[in-house]
From TrEMBL:
Keywords from the named record: DNA damage, DNA repair
Annotated ranges, domain HhH-GPD: 58-210
Name of the molecule in the record: DNA-3-methyladenine glycosylase II
Bilayer-crossing regions: none
The keyword DNA repair belongs to this UniProt entry's keyword annotation: yes
Amino acid sequence: MSDAVGSPVEFVKPDYWPEACRHLARKDRVLKRLIPQFGDACLQSRGDAFTTLARSIVGQQISVKAAQSVWDRFARLPRRMTPANVLKLKVDDMRQAGLSARKIEYLVDLALHFDSGAIHANAWPGMDDEAIIAELVGIRGIGRWTAEMFLIFHMMRPNVLPLDDAGLITGISRNYFSGDPVSRSEAREVAAAWQPYCSVATWYIWRSLDPLPVY
């Protein structure tokens, strides 16, 4: 597979996945049923941190198809997708790629944070989840949900529970409450059995709603 600018994309799989699946199948009757339905499929990470976050900003509040189209046009503008190169881009060129004025502001702020060292991406592997979230939400256009998706899909942290995610809440409703509405506290109670692999359980709950792979 290739990314938007044609270079090979290397997928990385988490080494904890097999143990997480065994643990969740023992602890949770729903996951014991769901996990075997998806074979060897699992969470995979691709790309670097800056590109991953830039894509998340581009994709905000538009369809997946539209987001891919805008990203493809935007990704052709810099020679390489780096913070320094994004800061050199002309606003008019970014607008012509389909980006709104607000998203351009967000992308520039993201690039500034990376380029200036205001965030400590190299230190993230040794930081806990909440510390990384605190750094990320200091960037314009990145809220807690985006930060949690980054932790799951890019850093592949095993124990993230994104209670602001509509898909997770819907999946818990359908799989555990026969479709009845679910509060955050009820969702948290269900997820107590998922510790310390909430990210893995969330991935399977998402898959129960949409069988296509979630990246």
